[in-house]
Each structure stands twice: as structure tokens, then as C-alpha cells.
Please model this.
Amino acid sequence: MTTLKEHFLLDPGVVFLNHGSFGATPRPVFEAYRDWQLRLERQPVLFLGRELDGLLGESRQALGGYLNADADDLVYIPNATHGVNIIARSLGLAPGDEILTSDHEYGACDHTWDFICGKTGAVYVRQPIPLPVCGGDEIVEQLWQGVTPRTKAITLSHITSPTALRLPLEKVCERARDRGIVTIVDAAHSPGQIPLDLQALGADAVFGNCHKWMMAPKGAGFLYARRELQPRIEPLVVSWGYRPTPETTTGSRFIDILQWTGTKDPAAALAVPAAIRFMAEHNWEAVRRDCHELLRQAIERICGLTGLAPLYPLESDFYAQMGIAPLPECDLAALKRRLYDGFRVEVPLIQWQDRQFVRISVQGYNTQEDIDALVGALEVSGKSL
Model:
């Protein structure tokens, strides 16, 4: 496997196996980001007042090509959490409406839906999807047990944060459309980690991050909405785009109300095309394949160390570059300190339901030596805790 470590700014003294939390940006992409910031500072009025809409349009075109979506159906937002807040507040929920989700969802999204349901009287239904999993059809059927005549929307992660489980959303979205149920996808972890085709996915709304597995700078998220849903979208922050003039409109209400929400640094969004180019220049399909194989080995070795069975079939697409390995019951905080302070291994330890895991992210900068370091550190730490 050819390592891309030299292209990243990460501390060489740390075994970094936590790309999934906040990502990491390659040098060429970071340089593009800094160039946009410098251009902004040289003439802020020209840049923000007269050039930015066109520049963002070009960046959205590149992102749309990468995600197979029309650029006018995409808008840049700061992050995925921003996206769930926009969608949750735009649905017009009423008392008794149900929002169906799984019990594998990201905490910030759960909090958002809990807050909105508390305000509206709607009900947030967390349907269990137990581990280990065996098949995609089984997951769909388990989820569908939570559907009732009151289900107004289904919101799910494409790749879950705590359990790194890839959900079969194409099947869920197709089935939901037949029932007239709105589908909302949290794609924080999928673009860059797996091929993401928004047309094939078939969701009504998708929010995601470019700063994680696409490796763009922090602050580059996106929101996609099908044309049929766009008239219902409301801005979180009302600004000039709410009533654009003929000179300032982009021609899309969806873009107008969400793109300009006051003065901010747009450099992260403008650097997204550089991130897409970086992946193309480094044969990212092969990189993802190599990373998946390293991850498979890591999970297999850790399961061999602990004597615990994997939580999804290792020869499957239930995981990609991020996956979990079960741990025996232990003091996670103490183990976390031991791994980092004693071995300089940066990796998240997860408590989910009554289970404990290590969640491993493998990106193009990781090597076999990184996996060896993690497994060795777990072996030593397990004996000393």
C-alpha cells in the first residue's frame, strides 16, 4: 500500500486512527484554502459583494459532479449538524407526527429532533437495529417495524457514527417514497469514504460534510434537497437572500435563502474542488480499497485478541474505511488515557447501549505500522487495566 502520509499536516508523533471525528486536510487542499482566504482579505468588498456567488456556483458545480446532483439542488452550509437543524425546522411538524430513526444515530442529530419534537408535540421514534447484523433486508425489516400511519419522515445515517454501520438506505428510501414518507439522510461520513450518488440514493433531503472523508477544510458541509421539497425549506438565519433583488438572486430560492446568512469566511467551501482533484489525482478508489483491507485486518486481529466476534461480517460492505471492534467490559476513560498517554494512539472508544467498542478509521495516510501500533497498545493496555 502506498502511503499518502507526506501530504498531510498531522503530527508524525501520533498514530492517528480517528479520521472519522473531524477529518484531516491534505497540504495541497489546505494551500488552496489559504489562497482563498488571502484573496478575500486583499479586497473583501469585491470578493464578498461581487464575486462570491459566482465562485460558490462553480464550487457547487464541482460538488454536484462528484455527488451526481444538480448544483442548484445543493447549497454549502457549515456542517451536517447545521443541515439537520434546517430540515427539522422546515417540516412543519404537528402534535402526534412521528419521526422514525434508528438507535445508531449521532448525538447532535438526536438532540435536534428531541428539541423540535418537544416544541411541536411530534414524537421521535428510535427503532432498535441490534448488533451483530447479517443482511441488508433484515435491517430494512427491523426498521420498518417502527413505521405507523403517523410516520411523517424517516431520518437515518448513511454510515452511523457510533457503530460505523453502513445502512441500506436505497431500499429504505424507495419503500418510504411508495408510502409518501419523507426521507432525510445524515451523510456526514459517506462522501469520500464510499461513492455517494444522490440520484441513486433517492432521499428527499441529504446533509453531509466535505471536511471528513472528502478531506476539505473544516466548515464545508452541504445540504441537498429534491426540488419537490425545496419550497418547504426555511432558513435558520434570515438574511438578504430572503428577499433578493434581481441583481443579487441566484435564480434559486433554495440557494438564495441559505447561501448568504451574513458575513463569514467561505474559503472552506471554495476549497472543495481542490479536495475533489486531490482524490482524483491519487486514484481514490484504490486508496479506499487498501484502507478497507487494513481495517478488515485490524478488526480481525482485535477480535482475535479479545475473543469477541465481529459485529458485522468482515467480508461485507457493512463497513468501509471506518469500523468497530468489540471490547470486553472495561474502564473506557482509563483505556483511552492509556492508549494516548502511553502509546500516542488517537482512536475513539465508544459506549453504545450496553456494548463497548474501539472505532477505527483508516485513511490514505495510515499504514500497516499504525495498525500494529494499535493492536500492540490494546494488548499491553488490556493486561494492565
